Amino acid sequence: MASTKPKLEDLSKEQLIARIYELERQIPPESRRPHTVHNPFPFAQHPTRKIALKFSYAGWLYNGLAAQSQPTPLATVEQVLFDALVNTRLVDPEKGMDGCGWSRCGRTDRGVSSAGQVVSLWVRSALGAGSIRQKNQSVFEQDDSAFTTGLDADSMSTLVTTEPSSTALDESLPSASSPSPPLSPRPETKLDTNETKQELAYIHMLNRVLPPTIRVLAWSPVADEFDARFSCQWRHYKYFFSRPGLDITAMRDAAARLIGEHDFRNFCKLDPSKQIENFNRRVLGAWIERVGDDHGEEELYVFNLKGTAFLWHQVRCIMAILFLVGQRLEHPSIVDHLLHTSECSSKALTSAPIESKPNYALADSLPLALWDCGYRPEDVTWQTDAIAQTKQGVAQDREKTNNFWFNMYSIWTHDRIQTTMQMYFLRAAERFYPTPSASVDRGLLRLNAGGGVYRHSTRYTPIHELDRGERAEVANEKWRQGASGQRRITKRNTKTKNTDDD
């Protein structure tokens, strides 16, 4: 007769422990795989070179261009690009953006896009001996403040910058009136020019890991002293808008009055922490043209602004005034009055100067794009990835080029179809909600702010009658006497004292 197993509740403590040990011995041993140790990438064993990258991005999907020290609701373009550089092992993540000498041409705000933004930095290279990176190692371990001074104050380039962007040019943050000191050149990296060797395919490597809304377009070898911000000669911005209800002729008249060097303090957002005292900027060109290929029923136009240096929000402020002129709420001469900031300003008028900015609303950021950044021909040579000197290599390069074009075309087609569908949704709605007649809007003003945004009002207040902000001199002095200003002065004095002690 088979023996029955005792009940657990009948077992003593010692018997229970013995039972547990018996059951544990019946458990098959786990197959232990050897732990894989990933050795850090040996950046010090690879040569480096300085390059410039030209890239585009859809600004409405990001929290602006510049990487931030604090968390942001959306990713920033720079952080996504830097992560791609890290993933492709082109830069050392331990050194960060400062360690690779990162410099941006301009700073664009949230919502602002670019078709030709530029950054310069040091990256890994396939050319040269491995010892070259070691020779430069001491430079990367130094305090990189010399390489990044003023990078967050992109409003003013000593050379010619063009634009802020709400952004990089229009939205380049304002900087101090005096230019930042020039960057110290890094030690020269002698690259191997052996024709049998090829440089890394920077564009393909980065676009392979970047989201489709950020595309690297070209790269250029640059001199060690090249700086994407300070070497820039001009920036060109575009602002797109639809025509309905706008007098394009009047807007062109107003835009033409911007050309030349003027005091633009009434066309920017004042930031006292930047302590700007000189608001003079030079506009090289300002014109409006029709967009050649509009696929809807409404005519599309684009405002072009090209200049050497710009203030914070300058482009969007200018566009806000142009919209008021286009809606016949202001005369084109309002531009002259806003540029007449003192008795000795470039716009000598008989009326009283407007010494501080009237509180008018900004134009929307969505239609604004940094179109291009200009450099001297001897400073940059834009190129795509090199073509291998084999039939197979040529075929592979053509395939990469074709894929790049088709990826961009695919995004454009997708968005175009969505736009067309929205137009037909509007047509379907018009069966029940006809287009309002002028009489319906009588007594209600719809102020065009760009990007499909309208501000409603029952009465328009002319620019001359609006409340005005503080004069720059007053705002700057208040900031200096405040807590933030005193902290900066203390920090500066401490740094000066330490330098003297050395």
Automatic annotation (TrEMBL):
SUPFAM superfamilies: Pseudouridine synthase
Residue segments, region Disordered: 159-192, 474-502
Keyword terms: Isomerase, tRNA processing
InterPro entries: PsdUridine_synth_cat_dom_sf, PsdUridine_synth_TruA, PsdUridine_synth_TruA_a/b_dom, PsdUridine_synth_TruA_C, Pus3-like, TruA/RsuA/RluB/E/F_N
Residues making up the signal peptide according to the UniProt record: none
Biological process annotations from GO: mRNA pseudouridine synthesis; tRNA pseudouridine synthesis
Domain Pseudouridine synthase I TruA alpha/beta stretches: 254-375
GO CC terms in record: cytoplasm; nucleus
Superkingdom: Eukaryota
KW tRNA processing (keyword) present: yes
Cited Pfam families: PseudoU_synth_1
Family named by the database record: Belongs to the tRNA pseudouridine synthase TruA family.
Protein name, as recorded: tRNA pseudouridine synthase
